[in-house]
Amino acid sequence: MVRTGFACLVLATPATNFVLETALMESLHGKPTMRHSAITRLKARIVAALRSRRGGGGAMALAIAAFAATGFVVLLLGKARQDLFMDTAEAFTWGAKFLGGYGRHPPLTGWIAGVWYRILPPANWASFLLSSLTIALSLAMTVLIARRVLGARRGALIAFAMMLYPLYIGAKADHFNNYQVLLALLPLTVWLFLVAWDKRTALAGAALGLAAAAATLTIYSGGLGVAAIGLAALIGRERRAFFTSPAPYVAALVFVAALTPHLAWLLSGHDASLDYAARYAGGARPDRGELYYLGRYFGQQIGLLAFVFGALAVALWPRRLRWPARGLGGAPAGERRLVVAIAAVLVLAPLAAAVALALPLQPDWGNSLFFLVPVAVLALLPGLVVTWSAVARGALLAAVWALALVVGLPVYEAVNFRLRPDYRAYEPLSELARELTTRWHDRFGAKLPFVVAELEVAAPLAFYSPDHPLMMSADETMFSPWIDDPAALKTKGYIGVCRDGDGRCAAFLHGLNPAAERFDVTLARSVRGVSAAPHLFHVEVSPPR
């Protein structure tokens, strides 16, 4: 898959011979061996495709598509023993009904899931495909930003370095949730801002306003990206020309209009998402200090970006600086400064909020905010020499890394399954969903309408049950706004589930129906004759009336 995908970069062009000779001069040091000669020829063909005036952009698009397909295969092979990430299953439950909000968050992620799973069946592979497409959009938009402000050569290097980003491929790439959707929409919004900054037309402003509203409707931290863009526009050198054009005002009108349905939803009393967000503004937890949360937050993001900057370092070795700076492909310096300003706000604003409000930053909150850092760093180093040979090395490194994940991640997962059988990812919730649905059918001869459990259990049960019942969260009923008539649970019946030892869940279910039938189910996940640790679940059945 990787070999086939990156072969898409090898496109025949009229300039092939010239580029081949140039790449050979850049790459060779002495007489090559047969192995080195083959690598050199491959690098030259990659460079030829990327430098083509007619096909350079198409070659990069094919590379991104091949990367997304490879990432999809990585998830299929590497996550075969696991159920979906809880947030991903929760997004599916949101999409059961198209509402103005979904308890904890604004509605866009639920809307996307609702449309997607009406086209494809609720299955792991369909979720992995959705994540892969979301990641492809994020990478494509980031590359467009990089090409615009750094030039084609540096933009291509950024593209291949970002193909090592763990949020784009590997362990965290299957997390289709609000952060992953925002990771795609913020680059789109930034790119459309650069287009509007340049074109200054009403149409460009409308596109910017719609993208900004979509980012905000994904999760409220998306508003941070909108604020960063607004601040960049205010300090940009061409701000007078921009603010005397229709673009910013059309953008603002479209932004407010697109947010209006959600605002009306909030004002109608469905303000659980605001309550949920406000819970984190009350300061750090008593047993943890601010530095603990800051360390976890920035530690995770630095660790994730280390893969990208490691790839850049390998591709650029040996590094060279020259002055005065050249080689940015004629990219406008003003737009580079805008991108640096936006990146700085996205990175530093959470730090300022954490210090000012004693906000306990959670590591995943930053997953959608650091995508511009590699672009900003290269923008701040105009004297760093980036050759086409370095770009070719970056492409080969990305291919090798993807191949290593295709081969290595399934092996790691198999070993982990044997050595850590009690790992939460191997909890048999999909098996439990099928078992309980079968029991309901045998008992009542009808579809299972509702499932009640804590959120981490209820969402997977709703996803994996063949009946895909509506879920009610035993943690907070306000997280289940799609159940507009709680009395329907007693009328139509439901199944409640608690993990062993979860007293809060058991108390909630008892209060819901003290006369419910009770029994226990013990299950263990088994893959190719190897079983994980058994799990005990306490089940309550409230029959339909």
Describe this structure in words.
The longest helix is centred in the last third of the chain and has 32 residues, at 388-419. This protein is of the alpha/beta class. The chain has helices at 2-7, 16-27, 34-51, 56-78, 86-94, 108-119, 124-150, 152-162, 178-199, 202-216, 222-235, 239-243, 247-267, 272-278, 290-316, 333-357, 373-379, 388-419, 429-444, 455-464, 487-492, 503-512; strands at residues 450-453, 470-473, 494-499, 517-523, 526-527, 530-531, 535-542. The chain is globular and about 80 Å long. Helix 10 (202-216) runs parallel beside helix 13 and helix 11 (222-235) crosses helix 16. Mean pLDDT is 87; it is low at 1-31. 61% of the residues lie in helices and 6% in strands. It has a five-stranded mixed sheet, with helices on both faces. The protein has a two-stranded antiparallel sheet with strand order 5-6.
Q: Mean pLDDT score, rounded?
A: 87
- Low-pLDDT stretches: 1-31
Shape: globular
Q: Structural class per helix/strand content?
A: alpha/beta
Taken as a percent bin, the fraction of beta residues is: 5-15%
The arrangement of helices and strands along the chain is HHHHHHHHHHHHHHHHHHHEHEHEHEEEE
Distance between the termini: 54 Å
Please state how the strands of the largest beta sheet are arranged side by side.
2-1-3-7-4
- Helix amount, in percent? 55-70%
Number of strand segments: 7
Count of helix runs = 22
